């Protein structure tokens, strides 16, 4: 066989130039054209033993869909992805591909991997451009009722899968809009909300009932819901923001990333005063943390008009948990990185408003439990960073509201709901859980993967009655 | 969607609405609150549940027109709808027979203190209530409060009705009066009033419960925007409260936090007034 010449690098995807995009909320990358997609898909070696499938938490048949794209069979490609992934337009944009499918791509040994994420996004967007998705034929109703709590990626996946199996599903959502972090957390310039709305609309067209403004634990307890439903899936995410617990953190101008992003994304504070919810505009905004949430916050601050936007992170660039693309985009947009730096206090201006962050310099020590090198503070290295807005983006854990108001629901480390990972069963009969509520803050694709496992187990439980 | 069934103007600054919210009414207890959105552009506004009727599936909301959102809400009439009414949120008032208790309502705070006073009375307490406002026009529900209190003291800052005093004055007298052992005090009203009630009771070591109305977004513990600094660290008002021990609250931090969006609120109010004027001409 003639030796195939491989193009060494990914087909580039055009993007809004940094200087322009920091003035708007439009999506940054434009996506591939059909020609670009076909060229990129042809880079795939079609390995006999494709590691990329194992590298995907929902085991998408990657070589299969790449082959179809290479042949110009876009409909076939998206159908194949949809067999295991209900939100391809979302995951194509937000998955950490460089740690998953693309990390194990055979090309990686010598070249850049195939741009699997961009191609997933391409076919998902192509599908959307063809008009609304036809609703699949549903089996006759089983007569079983399932309540799904939370409308993030985990809940949406479970609802879609169970509806497809003929069960009657009601989704309860605390906020006034469904979508979870996809709607209130991840900004428009990274994940346009119209995409999320379209996917949720599809699930509703499959007959899933959506009840917003319903806080389980308050409006009704889990035990009360069990009187009306045969099974419950908890997909309530990890919505409790962590703070540093250092002096001055309650000063005005110190936000949690959750609050900052929710005001902007869900409440549309960037359109104030057309929308009622305000947000404080800083000239010098400092975000503490090094993950996706921190990048989203720092980049949002720029778009709100901050003259300077800073990231303050306690380890080095290497250890940053955010997606490569997000960190790269943040750097391009001129965000300043203050690395190996840990805040120890916030200082005010004497009128209750934050003015400076007192920090310590760190050195890297031995790796910790996460495998990343631990930051070790240098004694007496205190210095101050001026900032008029501070955003704390150092992580989050599950909200204790439901465990607190439910009998026999076991929780573990940092408030996660304990589950059997093969079935997503909790300690409480008829109650399943998955996504961030079970794992702690993780990823969209892991939440969906657990949702799929749960849906299968729920179906089995509803059919057999065996716990 | 939640339909407004009745509307009543209580005073120059306070309005009452009976709102259809069966899911909230089913579970509501004294001390809890809801979050309301007026329309699709609206912010999420926390309002205390002033009363509820489980059978009718309705709740009573009372609000003061302090910002754009509440002004807009004030223009709604019976038959109109609120896009969001979610709850009941927060913890209910801790009820018990404490002995003799004092319930203080200042201004629009008279509304949320009423169900608490009523519940405390039903729990067997001797209830002494103090209600106060800047001036007579801002007072309401005197008769209702009287009906659930063993003793009612009414005061106004300017003396236009009842006693000319701040609510802390009769409170101090009660605390000093040798014949009375006050076991607990509840105070709901302007932040500054709650602060001074707490300072008044502190030397007497009488446990004082205040209901904090901080700036909120979600109301479920997701954003931390509502946080209050207590002596031993921060807490989230929406899920850990809204009632707190007034002696542990760091009042000055709280007073500055509730002022954080003052400038933006001013902009929104001016824009609202302009819109109202335009609506009048067109
Ligand atoms: C700013 C930000 C950026 C991120 N970026 C990425 C990224 O680029 N890539 C990636 O893979 N992951 C990213 N993540 C993580 C990812 O969003 C989450 O892992 C994922 O959304 C978890 O899904 P979930 O369904 O478990 O929960 P969530 O998306 O958190 O949804 C939970 C839903 O449940 C609702 N709920 C909670 N409690 C109740 C209750 N008591 N009653 C009713 N409803 C309730 C919530 O309101 C919410 O809508 C990011 C997270 C954030 C915050
Ligand atoms: S209002 Fe968001 S945590 Fe309390």
Protein described:
- The complex is a heterodimer of chains A (467) and B (282).
- With 467 residues, chain A is α/β, with parallel strands linked by helices.
- Chain A has helices at 18-21, 34-41, 51-55, 62-70, 74-82, 88-94, 116-129, 153-164, 181-184, 193-205, 222-228, 257-265, 292-303, 324-332, 401-405, 436-439, 444-464, and strands at 145-149, 168-172, 209-211, 231-234, 240-241, 254-256, 284-288, 308-312, 336-338, 341-348, 354-367, 373-377, 383-386, 389-392, 396-397, 431-433.
- Chain A has 3 domains: 18-129, Alpha-helical ferredoxin (Fumarate Reductase Iron-sulfur Protein, Chain B, domain 2), CATH 1.10.1060; 145-239 and 397-464, FAD/NAD(P)-binding domain, CATH 3.50.50; 243-394, FAD/NAD(P)-binding domain (3-Layer(bba) Sandwich), CATH 3.50.50.60.
- The longest helix of chain A is centred in the C-terminal third of the chain and has 21 residues, at 444-464.
- Chain B folds into 2 domains: 2-89, Elongation Factor Tu (Ef-tu), domain 3 (Beta Barrel); 100-257, Nucleotide-binding domain of ferredoxin-NADP reductase (FNR) module (Rossmann fold, 3-Layer(aba) Sandwich), CATH 3.40.50.80.
- The two termini of chain B are 29 Å apart.
- Chain B has 9 helices and 16 strands.
- Chain B is an alpha/beta fold and 282 residues long.
- The chains are: A alpha/beta (467), B alpha/beta (282).
- The A-B interface holds A 174-176, 213-215, 218-220, 239-241, 243, 245, 249-253, 255-256, 258-259, 262-263, 267-268, 272-278, 280, 351-353, 399-401 and B 23-24, 27, 37, 41-44, 68-69, 83-89, 217-225, 227-229, 233-234, 239, 250, 252-253, 256-257, 259-261, 264-265, 267-268, 271.
């Amino acid at each position: 066989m003639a030796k195939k010449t491989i193009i060494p690098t990914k087909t580039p995807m055009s993007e809004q130039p940094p200087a322009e995009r920091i003035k708007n909320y439009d999506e940054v990358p434009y996506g591939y054209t059909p020609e670009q997609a076909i060229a990129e898909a042809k880079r795939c070696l079609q390995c006999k033993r494709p590691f990329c499938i194992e590298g995907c938490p929902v085991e998408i048949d990657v070589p299969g869909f790449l082959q179809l794209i290479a042949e110009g069979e876009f409909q076939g490609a998206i159908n194949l992805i949809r067999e295991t992934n209900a939100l391809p337009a979302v995951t194509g944009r937000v998955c950490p591909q460089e740690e998953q499918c693309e990390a194990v791509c055979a090309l990686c040994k010598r070249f850049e991997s195939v741009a699997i994420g961009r191609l997933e996004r391409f076919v998902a967007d192509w599908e959307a451009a063809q008009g609304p998705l036809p609703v699949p034929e549903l089996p006759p109703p089983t007569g079983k009722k399932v309540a799904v709590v939370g409308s993030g990626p985990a809940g949406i996946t479970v609802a879609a899968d169970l509806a497809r199996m003929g069960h009657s599903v009601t989704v309860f959502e605390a906020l006034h809009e469904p979508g979870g972090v996809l709607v209130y957390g991840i900004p428009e310039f990274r994940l346009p909300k119209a995409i999320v709305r379209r996917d949720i609309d599809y699930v509703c067209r499959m007959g899933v009932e959506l009840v917003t403004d319903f806080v389980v634990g308050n409006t009704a307890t889990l035990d009360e819901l069990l009187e009306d439903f045969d099974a419950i899936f908890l997909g309530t995410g990890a919505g409790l923001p962590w703070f540093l617990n250092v002096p001055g953190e309650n000063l005005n101008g110190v936000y949690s990333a959750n609050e900052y992003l929710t005001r902007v994304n869900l409440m549309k504070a960037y359109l104030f005063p057309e929308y009622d919810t305000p947000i404080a505009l800083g000239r010098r905004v400092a975000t503490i943390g090094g993950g996706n949430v921190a990048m989203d916050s720092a980049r949002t601050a720029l778009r709100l008009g901050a003259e300077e936007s800073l990231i303050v992170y306690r380890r080095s660039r290497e250890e940053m948990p955010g997606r490569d693309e997000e960190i790269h985009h943040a750097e391009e947009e001129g965000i300043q990185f203050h690395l190996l730096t840990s805040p120890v206090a916030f200082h005010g201006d004497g009128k209750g408003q934050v003015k400076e962050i007192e920090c310590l310099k760190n050195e890297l020590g031995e790796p910790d439990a996460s495998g990343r090198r631990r930051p070790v503070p240098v004694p007496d290295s205190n210095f101050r960073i001026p900032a008029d807005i501070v955003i704390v983006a150092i992580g989050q854990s599950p909200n204790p509201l439901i465990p607190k108001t439910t009998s026999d629901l076991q929780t573990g480390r940092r408030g996660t709901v304990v589950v059997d990972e093969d079935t997503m069963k909790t300690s409480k009969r008829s109650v399943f859980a998955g996504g961030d509520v079970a794992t702690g803050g993780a990823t969209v694709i892991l939440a969906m993967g657990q949702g799929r496992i749960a849906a299968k187990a729920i179906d089995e439980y509803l059919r057999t009655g065996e716990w | 969607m939640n339909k407004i069934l009745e509307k009543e103007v209580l005073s120059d600054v306070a309005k009452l609405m009976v709102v259809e919210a069966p899911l909230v009414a089913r579970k509501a207890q004294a001390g809890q609150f809801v979050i309301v959105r007026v329309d699709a552009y609206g912010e999420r506004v926390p309002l205390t549940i002033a009363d509820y009727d489980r059978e009718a599936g309705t709740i009573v909301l009372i609000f003061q027109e302090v910002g754009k959102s509440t002004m807009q809400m004030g223009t709604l009439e019976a038959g109109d709808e609120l896009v969001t009414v979610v709850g009941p949120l927060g913890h209910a008032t801790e009820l018990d027979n404490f002995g003799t208790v004092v319930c203080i309502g200042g201004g629009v705070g008279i509304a949320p203190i009423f169900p608490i006073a009523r519940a405390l009375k039903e729990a067997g307490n001797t209830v002494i209530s103090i209600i106060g406002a800047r001036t007579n026009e801002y007072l309401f529900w005197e008769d209702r409060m009287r009906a659930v209190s063993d003793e009612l003291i009414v005061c106004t800052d300017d003396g236009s009705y009842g006693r000319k005093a701040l609510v802390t004055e009769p409170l101090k007298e009660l605390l000093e009066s040798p014949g009375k052992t006050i076991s607990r005090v509840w105070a709901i009203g302007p932040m500054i009033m709650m602060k001074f009630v707490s300072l008044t009771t502190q030397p007497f070591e009488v446990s004082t419960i205040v209901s904090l109305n901080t700036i909120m977004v979600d109301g479920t513990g997701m954003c931390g925007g509502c946080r209050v600094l207590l002596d031993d660290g921060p807490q989230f008002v929406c899920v850990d409260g809204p009632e707190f021990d007034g002696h542990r609250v760091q009042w000055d931090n709280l007073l500055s936090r509730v002022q954080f969006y003052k400038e933006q609120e001013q902009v929104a109010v001016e824009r609202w007034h302009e819109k109202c004027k335009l609506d009048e001409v067109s």
